[in-house]
Specification:
The complex is a heterodimer of chains A (459) and B (357). Chain A has 459 residues and is of the alpha/beta class. Chain A has a domain at 30-60 and 165-352. In chain A, 55% of the residues lie in helices and 16% in strands. Chain A has helices at 2-55, 75-83, 103-110, 150-160, 180-190, 223-245, 261-267, 277-291, 314-334, 345-360, 362-378, 384-411, 419-452, and strands at 62-68, 90-97, 113-115, 129-135, 141-146, 166-170, 174-176, 194-203, 208-210, 213-216, 256-260, 297-308. In chain A, the strands form 2 sheets. Chain A has a 10-stranded mixed sheet with strand order 3-4-5-2-1-6-11-8-12-7, with helices on both faces. In chain A, strands 9-10 form a two-stranded antiparallel sheet. The two termini of chain A are 44 Å apart. Chain B is mostly helical and 357 residues long. Helices cover 69% and strands 0% of the residues of chain B. In chain B, helix 12 (224-237) packs parallel to helix 14. Chain B is extended. Classes of the chains: A alpha/beta (459), B mainly alpha (357). At the A-B interface, helix 1, helix 5, helix 12 and helix 13 of A face helix 1, helix 2, helix 7, helix 8 and helix 10 of B.
Amino acid sequence: MLFTIMEIIRIFNYVVFIYFITLNLWYFILNILALRGLKRYLLHLEVTGPYDKLLMRSAPPVTLLTPAFNESENCIKSVESQLKIQYPNMRILFINDGSTDDTLEKMLNYFDMQPAFLPQIAFLETKAVKKIYRSSKHPDLWLIDKENGKKADALNAGINYCQTPLFCAIDNDSMLEQDSISRVVLPFIEDTRTIVNGGIIRIANGCTFKNGHITKVGLPKNIIAAFQVMEYLRAFYSGRLAWDMLNASLIVSGAFGVFRHSTVVAAGGYRHQTIGEDMELIVRLHKYCSDKKIPYRIRYIPDPVAWTEAPETLKTLAKQRDRWQRGLIDSIRLHIKMLFHPRYKTVGLLAMPFYFIYEMLGPIIEISGYLLFFFLILIGFASTTYIIAFLLVAVILGMALSVFSLILEELSFHRYPRFRHLLKLIGLALIENIGYRQLNSWWRIKGTWSYLRRNQNWY
Amino acid sequence: MINKISTLLQNFVKGGEDPFILWVLLGLLVFFTFSTVILFFIAFYIRSHNLLIEKRREKQHKSWDPYILGVMDGSLTPEKAFQDIRANCSIPYLMYLEKYISVLRGKEKERLQTLGTLSMRRIKKLLNSPFRNMRLFGIHLLALFNQEEAYKSIRIARRDKDLILLAIIEMRMARDPAIKKRLLQYLFGLPFVSPIYISNIAADMGTGITPYLREMILKEDQKPFILIVAAETLKHMHDASCLDLTAYVLGKGGQMPAVLAAWLRYMEMFADETYLPFIKPFTAHAELMVRIAAIRAYIEATPRLSVFFIEHCFNDPSVQIAVNAAEKLHLRTELPYIEIDRIAAFRWGEIYREMVY
């Protein structure tokens, strides 16, 4: 019996060791690809930047879809900021997803909205639409009032009434920079294969906003939000840029992404029964286009920015991470057939396995590894020196990766202007690997557990 | 080898006595710590370097300005200025020169372009650089200083779509017809670039490309995509010289509604009465997009509209036809008299709804 347990422990140790080596090898490759992608994009900006502006004379119309549920506090501010976006042909569709507070009343009164008619273009299944309104102050602002059906349902209702070839899905608490839409639309003009393009999400905490637009970039004082600044930089610079180079992006953030309307409708729109509707849609679009042999590109560019408020308490952050993990597992489970399937090329052979092994199972392996090492030390089966050395290597490697993302930021847009911002970011890169990273993994394990218990709450 | 690694791993997880793994781990620890520290310094270096460069640029710009301004107003010869400007062949200097050139016209621009061409040796070196981004800068500067004879020396990998596209954008103002033709061939052959993008770039090349567009239109078995882009480009250029191909294109595009619609949209722009017989049959075409384009072109070109035609538009099964007709009719000063009862019978509710919403 003891022998069997020891044998299992031994095998698990191998798993942890191999996981550690391969994960860091992957990160190394992704960082190199990201650096390449960033250099290419910066050069493109420098050389053809002025011409891109000329292209805006042929800018395709875009509809901003903003789903909102009980957003009474933010709705006016957020719509006002959207109205200031500089884009020649844009319509805003605010979707009130059956709010129980005074979101609807506030919107109707503030923007002087009157009942109006909008033809239904697509027929994705959604909860009933009660009424459509149009602002008499801003003719391009529309409101759909519908019964509550969660975010995916609200977005589908917006897609049904979207009259333009492109739509941009954004969260109500996201604030777009004035030229964000122009930038994010460009890949659609340049390459007809582009069906989705996402921009970078940055943390708004600590920044100063005036009339819905950023006036001063800063870092949050709250340490939890500050950790997320570093985390987002790593995810958006190292991760997404690299996957974009491989045409294997599996995530375009629900907070800011532009989609080709016809393709999304043909693929069936957002899935209602999933918690991670943004990732699930992207994976499904990969599947749909590959199955139908439609040439396509799902892009990410690091320039157009949406600023979003990050959770500042451990409780809210834990809920967010729990939800993300459930969304990830659901998206992978629903499209498990794509895993290692050569038909889906880089998506099936690289991205899906990466997300499956390192993002979905990663936290379980990582936390189990910590526990096991601790247990082995306790029973005297493992050498403390070896284990500590191993853990230190893992932590230092994590720091190196974080600092590399910071270098990518410095090489490109360096949005945090002051020297002390840089110092603070470096400090965060150092300490986030001790404690915060492990906490994150723990929340994600909890997310896995609640997924297995079939918890579908959005919170 | 595998056995050895396996034994070492076993020793590691069991906390064996073999110090090799510990050494490896310590080595990795030192290496990654060292790498992290180096990366910190790189981050600092980049930030400081950027700040220093910004300051240095400001200083450089101040020192270049008198020479550039001198050449601009003719008080200094380009050759003299070139001799006196330090770093006269550097990319930052040439890019700074661009800022002036891009906002100037006439003689001042020409003088600065002459100043830029004095750095041609450097630019040609860039064109032959093994680095893609250097070649890109080279192409950019070459176009800026209007050095057409050097275009032929550009090395572009045929598979590098981005570079080809950038080169075309940069060189679109070239005057040499042979270069224009080559650029158009490249441009129309690029896969997956949207027609809007292509026609915008092509239109920027100017009317000098019309003979090549004609050639493309008249080519046997030409792809519909190219016919559409050609029509859109001619429209963008306001160039009526290809209208004489109307019979040919409309005949050829019989089975291709998108081609017909694009050509009719082109015709709409010039309101030429002589082509009315060609347009009229398409006002009753089965495809909506063709009907819309034909109705718009017909209303634009016809000097006197008949009551019958207006009723035909407003009674079309698709309200889109009525809307487009209404938009065009609204701009006309002269309209035929129609009895009020017959007007009242039009589907105004639907038309209004379509126009407003």
